[in-house]
Amino acid sequence: AGAAAWAGGVFDPRLVPPNGDLVARTEAARRRSGAATVTARLNPRPVTHDLGGPTVATWGYADSGPGPLIRARAGDLLRVEVTNDLPAPTSVHWHGIALRNDMDGVPGLTQRPIPAGGRHTYEFTVPDPGTYFYHPHSGVQLDRALYGVLVVDDPHETGRYDEEWIVVLDDWVDGTGRTPDDVLASLRSMGGHQDMAGMHHGGLPGMSMGGMEMMTSPLLGGAGDVAYPHYLINGRVPAAPVTLTARPGQRVRIRLVNAASDTAFRVALGGHRLTVTHTDGFPVVPVTTDALLLGMGERADVVVTLGDGSFPLVAAAEGKTGHALAVVRSGTAGPPNEARRPVELDRQVLTTGTLRAAERVALTDRRPDRVHRLFLGGAMMPYRWTINGTTFDHTDPLLVRRGERVRLEFVNTSTMFHPMHVHGHTFAVAGGGARKDTVIVTPRRTVAVDLDADNPGQWMTHCHNIYHAETGMMISLAYR
Ligand code: C2O
Ligand code: CU
């Protein structure tokens, strides 16, 4: 039934009102920047990926790793032509982008699914610079290799760094003889935690290196329902990691994207501290930390000044055993030490929800006109996740009116954490916190976020654990 709500339903264009406010805002952005039209093509298809040892049959946008990097400048018109060569209907959602509602890529809510063999063109203006990503909004397709990064550059930003690396984190299930749909079926029949139990102790190739022990004491209670056999950075297992190179002393901007379906990652770069400059695309008051925790759907931009040598960039699966790895090389000095577990992982760990918004993107002070409280609940047995006690098929939309300041209070009544994501808007964590579109709500805690209702339409609001979302933890936010 969850699948029907997520991917099916009948699309009624009358349900999508015109986007007056956003049109004005994006038109202004277009005039400001002397905007261009950027064209890209996506071809979701069955592929064989070499993960750097394991070779897997899956679905992807590219022959290896994440889909093509799509890059535009704020104010540009982006036109993406999708040719669906998958044996299933699909869709493309532009995670974090404030776009016109009918381009948001949610089958059953904003468009019809793109049928197998079908084509669809997305066309929208990208108003805000930042690090974003794209993925299907169809079932658990995200847990295949169907994701890619969208970078929107700031035409006014002058380069304050020498290099830029894009680092995409993923938890990988496929290639074990099971697909994400099998995992979903197994969760539904057995409940969480038991799924794939034992696989992570099974000594699969590429599982560990240099005796690195990757179980961390979790910051997040209930950190994920699935133990994955592999964790990836840019499509590679730790046994054959990607290498990122620069020169000693150079300042590097790392755009981190957590595209995983059921895994939060604790990220650290051995021998370095990370200065976080942006989260979910928007600037923050910079904070320097040893490590950073990134939930599913979250992004962070960090700046590091590179030392001389070879360093492990590690993403440890929070509360699970396993990690993803990339190797950073600068200069020639010193023996490679990427097999060592970075001590930074166990020092100061920052969560992005605690960051403050940079002044220029802070929401103005204003009392909320409307408060919606969302109780996040569910159970492992049977495996089913709810908002306000009901699964998505049965929830009434959260109603808002254009022009309102809306507060959403995410009240986590469960023992799992939930990275909560709102489409089409960037909220502020209440009380001057960072501008974000995805925020982790830890067990038994409440996180309030404020948004300006400036983009009419129907917008998904859901947990970015794709298995939680697919079994019910979604609701729509609708303008009336
Ligand atoms: Cu990346 Cu509806 O989400
Ligand atoms: Cu969840």
UniProtKB/TrEMBL annotation:
- GO BP annotations, alphabetical order: cell division
Matching entries from InterPro entries are given as: Cu-oxidase-like_N, Cu-oxidase_2nd, Cu-oxidase_C, Cu-oxidase_fam, Cu_oxidase_Cu_BS, Cupredoxin, CuRO_3_CopA, TAT_signal
Domain of life where this protein originates = Bacteria
Q: Which residues form the Plastocyanin-like domain?
A: 52-156, 230-329, 377-479
Which CDD domains does the UniProt record give? CuRO_1_CumA_like, CuRO_2_CopA_like_1, CuRO_3_CopA
For this UniProt entry, the molecular function terms from Gene Ontology, in alphabetical order, are: copper ion binding; oxidoreductase activity
Q: Which UniProt keywords apply?
A: Capsid protein, Cell cycle, Cell division, Copper, Metal-binding, Oxidoreductase, Virion
Name of the molecule in the record = Multicopper oxidase with three cupredoxin domains (Includes cell division protein FtsP and spore coat protein CotA)
Q: Which organism is it from?
A: Micromonospora rhizosphaerae
